[in-house]
From TrEMBL, chain A:
Residues annotated as domain CCAAT-binding factor: 555-709
Matching Gene3D superfamilies: Leucine-rich Repeat Variant
Organism listed in the record: Phoenix dactylifera (Date palm)
Listed PANTHER family: NUCLEOLAR COMPLEX PROTEIN 3, NUCLEOLAR COMPLEX PROTEIN 3 HOMOLOG
Cellular component per GO, a single term: nucleolus
Record protein name field: Nucleolar complex protein 3 homolog
Polar residues: compositionally biased ranges: 413-422
Recorded family membership: Belongs to the CBF/MAK21 family.
From TrEMBL, chain B:
Record's protein name: Nucleolar complex protein 2 homolog
InterPro entries: Noc2 (IPR005343)
Family: Belongs to the NOC2 family.
UniProt region (Disordered), positions on chain: 32-57, 86-114
Gene source species: Phoenix dactylifera
Length: 834, 672
């Protein structure tokens, strides 16, 4: 038997049991000897398919063909084990319950076998399903149930029978099983374990109440030495928990409650809940420990994320959240993405947990950011963008409630007035009724996850303050030069861009939630942004090493404007500084390095959407943008031109720029001459300039730009009184995107037009000068050619001679060779003659 | 027809199946089966042959076979009035008039001078000679020892022939078979090997010059043919033998120099004429007699082009043959071959050869039919694409020449070439699209290589050369987008050379098309990028941008690289500015670059760069002041495009402004 095993065992099996270690009892050997037929299948085993199967298990995908092989093997293995079961169980006859004689045992085995076969195909899909989203799992679960209806009846019956069997018997049973398992070769063991997993899992999903104890078995399987089994076990448990966890939070009974005598049903429920809770706890603990092991890191994170996504309302959410947040800025892309998705779904589906989890998550992330000193991957902050804050939530609902309350009161009053003449007993009953109703309501409130609006508002404001606290922390951190300097190296390792990886997403978030910022913070925030936007000015000597990229500085201006716009009436802060920054930042912008979208958006927010601008400033920006578009690509130029057009339309006085009035025009402002290098738009004296750029832009290679430029320059003839008539609809951002290189290249090229020849061209050379011809002709030296020809002749002749000689040589040599053959033939002739 | 076929078969047999013929005579059995195996042997022989000769050579031979069909009917024409039809079988061989004298003269065939030329072969030959003598002696001894062996040897000889010594038709074998072949044919004409002596040639030349339509010309052309094929087929059935090198060179030079003139005189064709008038010749009576002569001449010349490897000779042949280019109109089958040979020589030959081949191609493309132009367009483009994969300091000049010549040929007939160019540019664009979409490393590599860039450069040149005369607006727009896309796709200091190339191309396009293409932003980052200023000066590496697309990593930090970047950036900026140096909005155009340049000037600590940038700043400011001064005098507004166009046009044609002078000084030590 040992020999045979050797053949079967694939060498690369992860958990190989050496032959020596396998204890083959004498009984076994005898048994095999006696029943040679039983062992016969071992010789027939298809080692190839087994190997393939074993090595492929890791990726859970079994083809049909392989499944077929497997099935066959498993069946065979099962048969054998069953026979052995019988063999060993019967003689011992230790079964305490008489009815469970050999025959019944046999039937059980048979049943499990048949269930097995049906399960096999499903187990694969089931495991795969468990990796998917909850919604999908639920759907497939339903399908699975439908499909299983046939086998269900029998299985149920059997399961019930099984549950009746008391623990002692089960223990024995498992002991026997363990013994048998030892005898099986490793891959059979693996298959068997898998089958067991599937069986238990299916049973649990089918009937959680009665099979809840099997959770422990599943947990035990997860302690296996085989990594693959552990992974499978974890995934199976995930699927089971996702399915059986109830829609409420389990509160374990207090001691006092335990003392009370309760009905059997309640008792059962209590034990069920406590088992579930304990197993869940154990599972989570396992996940948390496994999370630290690199081999199981992915699986553990995946399980935790799916759990957080599926059952955020359930007990132990805190530890789950803590662990997910811990991994949120992992350097591993897959892990990070999983965690971010889990958190995002937590934020989006607040209904599942009533907002409590959101607050916790935000707090945890904020703490995480604080702990890591703002050196995290931006993804971890980007999740906040999916937060939703319902502004009207508090007010409207409280009103509604009030109304409801009033109505109720009225109704109660009415009722009361109606019942006034009723008897005392009736009154007492009424009171009791009211009391119980209130009690029930309170209980319902406590249990259900729709907290009161007050509560929700409180949570929301807490969440908000946590978010903003974190944002401000990041801003403050970015402003601290000493920190950023020292951390540059650490950041480079983390793979994030720039020395402030979180700043960009922080600014994004601020932009998004700008309307929710507390007015008290506003002043500080603006100060911060102002400082950040003009950051490079503080480090005159090393502006290129300044810690903020141009995009980030654009964003600062952008956020400031968003904030201000959303709180228009509340504050009166001078935004002049930000205009100055934008004016100068236009010079810093580099295509392909900085994000053009941010530039376009800044133009849109600050200039295009803004209200009336100061004439000086508007003119300065018009001039600067026109100059800007002379140096940059089409997309940027287009964004600038759209802005110019808009500004010109809104500011009729600026249209003076389009006309060349001798003597500087009537409206030349403070500065008489245009200063292109001035840093302050108000002091540039742009009103004194003329937009000559447009004449050059009209020659732009891109037809849309040249036409826009022409249309702008024709605005000069527009009636000054004619304000804001043709407001263009394309925003700078849109214009930028339309003309970006990616978009441009994908535009279909027009049909090739037939070529119009503008002028006839003679036979002149286009590039090469005609002298070349002369040069070539002149260099021919007849004498030289003659010599070369003669040389050539000699070479040819020698080659010919050489060939001829070689031929002759070969011929002679072959003749000599033939002599040998001749001699041999002669010998043959001689021998044949004799 | 039967006769023809029979003759063809005979010719084939004589050429290829000598041993079979011989064996048939001797054993008279198993002919057919052996013939098949003989074929195999022949193929082996061909392989061997290739090793000895160049590949090209074989191709030439193949083509001989391919168009032999064409020649057959020609031969028929000749056969009618031909005395020795056997020899005329061979392509291009002309009938000879017996009147024309062969002057026999005991000439010292191998004068001592001859031998000293190629020592290597000479020595080898000598060795082989000795070896042969040794082996022969051995064989003789064996024969003496065993007289019966000679019989056996005789019986096996034919087999031996099959397996051995076929690759080279050994002399005595060839001779015997040849003679045998003659014998079988029944020797219509006994003809002695006509040895061409120097004297004979002299007389013929004299006769031809005196009397062009005389028989000597045909003889001379036969001699020319023999000379062009000298050393290739020793079994060649042309009866003329070239005894020594004087004769060889004399015959070749004379025919090449004079043939064109003689043909023109005979046919009455003026030196310059167009292909229509040549085509008219076909109906004339002279043409009938001249046709075989001319064909023989052209064919032999082509053959010579394939054979010869020496540049001098090739250039000579090309220049002579080019005079007769118009005659190729009459032989369309030869033109294809000619173009093939020429394109090969053009793409691979050295400078002079390459240019003379190009001029020939250009003549063909412009003077012959439009089909020829098509072939030239495709072939030159393909050859260029195949040869521009690598750029180094060594082949830079050659590549430039190739590019210029392709542009030249494509500019001959824009109507025809436009579609091809558009197709090619669209192909470039689609490759770029793919790369932009996927950002895949492999896709990026397709763009980031010399083939792509050179192809782009080629069409940029094409557009710059022809934009003035043709409406290439669509092509221009597409190619600008492609170039900008490339610059966008490869950011970062490592790709600075590639981006500079893009800017350079854009400048060119802008200059020729007079559209405005903003390029300043593409060079700004070079003015900001600052290499490690403390880099070790010991490790000075010369960075040559012209043969680089991507900077090696070790260069990135070097000071030289930084300096090179700034130099190139300045150059490109000046080239950009010069186009608009007289434009009314020059001050605005220069505003932002000027601000950045000033900033750079403040910050840099490399003195040479400071000086360079300072000079640029001064020049630009000077020009700005100039334009501003002029601008204040005008009264029109920016929307008056016509007046804007006229602005400073007068000054432009006048003496060069300081900025123009500055530009030409920059241009002198240009890196592009």
């Amino acid at each position: 038997m040992g020999k045979k095993k050797k053949v079967i065992l694939p060498p690369e099996l992860p958990q190989e049991v050496a032959d020596d270690e396998v204890e083959v009892s004498d009984e076994d050997v005898d048994f095999v000897r006696e029943n040679l037929k039983y062992a016969k299948f071992l010789t027939k085993l298809d080692t190839n398919s087994i190997n393939r199967h074993v090595t492929r298990v890791a990726d859970h995908k079994e083809d049909e063909l392989e499944a077929l092989y497997e099935k066959r093997n498993r069946k065979a293995a099962l048969l054998k084990s069953k026979e052995e079961d019988e063999r060993y169980v019967d003689p011992v006859d230790a079964l305490p319950i008489k009815t469970l004689d050999g025959e019944l045992q046999y039937r059980t085995a048979k049943g499990s076998k048949s269930g097995d076969i049906t399960n096999e195909n499903k187990s694969a899909s089931w495991i795969k399903d468990s990796e998917k989203d909850t919604g999908v799992v639920k759907l497939t679960k339903a399908e699975r149930r439908l499909k299983m209806k046939k086998s269900r009846k029998e299985a149920k019956k059997l399961a019930e029978e099984e549950t009746k069997v008391d623990p002692a018997e089960e223990k024995l049973h498992s002991e026997v099983l363990a013994k048998v398992e030892e005898d099986l070769s490793a891959e059979e063991l693996f298959a068997k374990k898998k089958i067991r997993l599937a069986e238990v899992g299916m049973a649990l999903i089918e009937n959680p109440e009665s099979n809840i104890k099997s959770l422990k078995e599943l947990l035990q399987i997860c302690d296996d030495d085989d990594h693959n089994i552990v992974k499978l076990g974890l995934m199976s448990l995930l699927a089971v928990f996702k399915d059986i966890i109830p829609g409420y939070r389990i509160r374990l009974p207090t001691e006092k409650e335990l003392e009370m005598t309760v009905s059997k049903a309640v008792q059962q429920t209590r034990s069920y809940e406590s088992t579930l809770l304990h197993s869940y706890k154990a599972y989570l603990q396992k996940l948390i420990t496994l999370d630290k092991q690199p081999t199981f890191h992915h699986v553990a994170v995946r399980c935790m994320c799916s759990l957080l996504d599926a059952v955020p309302h359930f007990n132990f959410r805190e530890s789950l959240l803590a662990n997910v947040v811990k991994n949120i800025s992992s350097s591993d892309d897959v892990v990070r993405k999983l965690c971010c998705e889990a958190i995002t779904s937590l934020f989006i589906n607040e209904g599942k947990h009533g907002g409590q989890a959101t607050l916790e998550a935000v707090r945890l992330i904020a703490a995480h950011v604080k702990f890591h000193d703002c050196q995290l991957h931006p993804d971890s902050i980007d999740v906040f963008l999916s937060l939703t804050f319902d502004e009207d939530l508090g007010k409207s609902e409280s009103k509604e409630e009030k109304v409801k309350h009033k109505k109720k009161r009225r109704w109660q009053n009415q009722e009361g007035s109606n019942q006034v003449q009723g008897s005392d007993r009736k009154k007492a009953r009424q009171e009791l009724m009211v009391k119980t109703r209130e009690e029930v309501n309170a209980d319902f409130k406590a249990v259900s996850f729709v907290p009161g609006s007050e509560e929700r508002r409180r949570m929301q404001s807490e969440t908000l303050s946590a978010v903003f606290e974190m944002y401000f922390r990041i801003l403050k951190h970015s402003m601290d030069p000493s920190v950023s300097r020292s951390k540059v190296n650490a950041v480079a390792a983390s793979g994030a861009s720039g020395s402030h990886p979180l700043l960009a997403s922080c600014l994004n978030g601020l932009g998004k939630f700008s309307h929710l910022i507390d007015l008290d913070f506003m002043g500080d925030l603006m100060g911060c942004l102002k400082k950040l936007a003009g950051y490079s000015d503080h480090f005159d000597g090393s502006s290129s090493e300044s810690c903020l990229s141009v995009s980030e500085r654009f964003q600062c201006c952008l956020v400031a404007f968003r904030v201000m716009r959303n709180n228009l009436d509340a504050l009166n802060v001078d935004l002049q500084d930000f205009f100055v920054q934008l004016y100068n930042l236009l010079l810093e912008y580099r295509p392909d390095r900085d994000r053009g979208e941010v530039l376009a958006e800044a133009l849109k927010t600050m200039l295009w959407e803004g209200k009336q601008h100061d004439v000086q400033r508007a003119a300065a920006f018009i001039k600067r943008l026109a100059t800007f578009s002379l140096s940059f690509g089409s997309a940027e130029a287009m964004a600038a031109l759209v802005t110019i057009k808009h500004l010109l339309q809104k500011n009729s006085k600026c249209r003076n720029l389009l006309e060349n009035d001798a003597g500087g025009g009537s409206f030349s402002g403070l500065v008489v001459k245009y200063q292109p290098e001035a840093a302050d738009p108000n002091l540039s004296g742009a009103l004194a300039s003329v937009l000559w750029e447009l004449s050059l832009l009209a020659k732009h290679y891109n037809p849309s730009i040249s036409s826009t430029a022409t249309s702008i320059s024709s605005m000069a003839s527009m009636d000054p009184a004619q304000n804001q008539v043709y407001l263009s609809t394309t925003s700078p951002l849109q214009a930028f995107k339309d003309l970006s290189i990616e978009r441009e290249l994908f535009k279909p090229t027009g049909k090739p037009v037939s070529l119009n020849r503008k002028r006839m061209r003679g036979k002149d050379f286009v590039i090469i000068s005609p002298d070349e011809v002369q040069k070539v002709e002149n260099t021919i030296d007849e004498e030289e050619v003659k010599c070369r020809l003669e040389e050539h002749f000699m070479v040819l002749r020698d080659i010919a001679e050489n060939e001829r000689l070689r031929g002759e040589l070969n011929h002679t040599l072959s003749s000599i060779k033939l002599y040998k053959e001749y001699k041999r033939q002669k010998k043959q002739r001689d021998t044949s003659n004799t | 027809m039967a006769k023809k076929l029979g003759k063809k078969a005979r010719k084939f047999a004589k050429k290829n199946l000598q041993s079979v013929l011989k064996r048939r005579r001797k054993i008279k059995s198993m002919f057919k089966r052996k013939a098949a195996s003989r074929r195999v042997g022949n193929e082996d022989a061909a392989e061997e042959y290739e090793k000895v000769r160049s590949e090209q050579h074989v191709r030439g031979n193949f083509e001989d076979g391919a168009i032999s069909n064409n020649q057959l009917d020609n031969l028929f024409v000749e056969d009618d009035d031909d005395l020795n039809e056997d020899v005329s079988d061979s392509d291009g061989y002309l009938s000879e008039d017996p009147e024309c004298p062969y002057i026999s003269e005991s000439e010292n065939e191998n004068d001592s001078r001859d031998k000293s030329d190629h020592i290597a072969f000479f020595e080898q030959n000598k060795e082989i000679h000795l070896e042969i003598a040794k082996q022969k002696r051995k064989l003789e001894r064996l024969l003496e020892k065993d007289p019966k062996f000679s019989e056996f040897l005789e019986s096996r000889r034919s087999d031996l022939d099959q397996t051995r010594s076929q690759e080279i038709y050994s002399d005595d074998e060839g001779n015997t078979s040849y003679l045998d072949g003659v014998a079988i044919r029944g020797s219509q004409i006994s003809h002695d090997d006509k040895i061409l002596t120097g004297h004979t040639i002299d007389v013929w030349c004299w006769l031809v010059m005196e009397q062009p339509d005389g028989p000597a010309f045909a003889n001379l052309l036969n001699g020319f043919r023999a000379a062009s094929r000298y050393g290739i087929n020793s079994d060649d059935n042309s009866s003329q033998k070239i005894p020594n090198r004087d004769v060889f060179s004399k015959i070749l030079t004379f025919v090449l120099c004079e043939a064109d003139g003689i043909f023109r005189r005979l046919l009455g064709v003026p030196d310059s004429c167009i292909k229509e008038s040549i085509l008219k010749l076909k109906s004339t009576s002279e043409w009938k007699t001249m046709r075989p002569l001319m064909k023989s001449y052209l064919r032999s010349s082509l053959f010579l082009l394939n054979q010869v490897t020496d540049n001098q000779i090739l250039v000579f042949v090309l220049s002579r043959l080019r005079a007769s280019v118009i005659f190729f109109t009459l032989f369309p089958s030869l033109v294809g071959r000619l173009i093939k040979i020429l394109v090969h020589l053009w793409a691979t030959g050295e400078e002079r050869l390459s240019s003379s081949s190009f001029f020939f191609i250009q003549d063909i493309a412009s003077q012959l039919s439009s089909d020829c132009l098509d072939t030239c367009l495709t072939r030159t483009y393909n050859a260029f694409i195949a040869h521009c994969k690598f750029v180094g300091p060594t082949n830079l000049k050659h590549l430039k020449f190739l590019m210029d010549s392709v542009v030249e040929i494509y500019s001959l007939n824009i109507q025809k070439s436009y579609q091809k160019v558009l197709l090619s540019v669209q192909q470039l664009a689609s490759i770029l699209r793919q790369a932009l979409k996927t950002k895949d490393k492999e896709e990026l590599k397709k763009i980031h290589n010399w083939q792509y860039i050179n192809c782009l450069d080629l069409w940029v040149k094409f557009i710059t050369c022809n934009f003035r005369d043709h409406d290439l607006q669509q092509l221009l727009f597409l190619i600008i987008q492609v170039i900008r896309g490339i610059a966008h796709l490869f950011p970062g200091p490592r790709y600075v050379p590639l981006r500079f190339k893009c800017v350079h191309m854009l400048n060119h396009l802008s200059l020729s098309s007079r559209v405005f293409i903003p390029v300043a932003s593409l060079v700004f980052d070079c003015l900001e990028y600052r290499g490690n200023s403390h880099s070790d000066t010991t490790q000075r590496m010369q960075v040559d941008f012209s043969s680089l697309l991507k900077v090696p990593k070790q260069f990135l930090k070097s000071r030289d690289f930084h300096a090179g970047c700034v130099l190139s950036a300045v150059e490109l900026l000046v080239a950009h500015f010069i186009q608009w140096s007289y434009h009314i909005s020059f001050p605005e155009l220069a505003t932002i670059p000027l601000i950045l340049l000033k900033r750079f000037h403040e910050k840099t600590n490399v003195e040479s760069l400071r000086r360079l940038v300072k000079r640029l700043i001064d020049q630009v400011e000077q020009n700005i002041a100039f334009i501003q001064k002029k601008r204040e005098e005008v009264s029109f507004s920016p929307n008056d495009q016509a007046s804007v166009e006229c602005f400073l046009q007068l000054e432009k044609t006048g003496p060069p402004a300081p900025f123009t002078q500055y530009y030409s000084s920059i241009l002198q030590n240009s890196r592009f």
